[in-house]
Design a protein that fits this description.
The protein is of the alpha/beta class. It is built from 5 helices and 4 strands.
Length: about 130
């Protein structure tokens, strides 16, 4: 499965750099920013990215903000593709979960686990 972090400005690239510092790798993970491009240009660029990695049958978009432009682009791109998934609220635990479990779980289980791990990473300490 290919993971695409799609976010505003440099958030996606920063998450990948942080993951690389922790795990030392980021295979099957791509950063994508919507900065200074139209929705149509984003879709074309995403098509090119997916094509460059060999058109994987399964893709997980991890968008920064549900309802935002990045999320909408991912939703448009994933429309009518049953093995393309869109999770919103990307965070470091979500990305780490994706990378450490992508070769151990089938696509549906992986997406559910990544979502749960992203939620688990949010905790109020008092």
């Amino acid at each position: 499965m290919l993971g695409i972090i799609i976010a505003h400005k440099s958030l996606a690239e920063s998450l990948i750099q942080t993951v690389q510092a922790i795990l030392g790798h980021h295979d099957d993970l791509v950063a994508f920013s919507n900065e200074k491009i139209t929705t149509e240009e984003a879709i074309i660029q995403l098509r090119d990215i997916i094509s460059e990695v060999g058109d994987p049958s399964e893709v997980l978009f991890m968008a920064d903000l549900r309802g935002g432009n990045c999320w909408a682009i991912a939703r448009l791109f994933a429309r009518n593709k049953p093995n393309y998934y869109v999770l919103s609220g990307v965070n470091l635990p979500m990305v780490l979960s994706f990378l450490t479990k992508k070769n151990k779980l089938n696509a549906n289980d992986l997406v559910e686990t990544v979502e749960k791990d992203g939620h688990r990473g949010i905790l109020l300490e008092r």
